[in-house]
Design a protein that fits this description.
Blueprint lengths: L5 H9 L3 H8 L3 E11 L6 E2 L2 E7 L3 E6 L4 E6 L2 E9 L2 E5 L3 E3 L4 E11 L1
Parallel strand pairs: 1-9
Antiparallel strand pairs: 1-2, 1-5, 3-4, 3-6, 6-7, 6-8, 7-9
Length: 115
Amino acid sequence: MVVIPIARIATVASAGLIPLLFACSSPHGVVTGKLIEVGGPFPMRRLVPGHVTARGSASTQTVIVGRDGRYTLSLPPGVYHLTGQAGNVPCFAERAIHVRPGKTIGGVVVVCTIR
């Protein structure tokens, strides 16, 4: 077991290196985006609550999407297909997402089409 003196920890923290240590040790990537609904009686796109699921070879993860329609997933590296649901309406992303360690992929839209 390695014991680090408190003075050393304070020095590292005051230098702003603690977030850097955690960022370097994270093997996950991040995917952010919106869950939107199109079609039905309202022709415009609207952000909706529901859930989004990422399915890939490395992991499957589902997150709840609030009223603001935004979601964030933290995933191990790999290729994922995003699906979702808003009420009884199934939703899909247009393309597969390739997650890389320490990288963020933003603006991934999962679309729910009302017919």
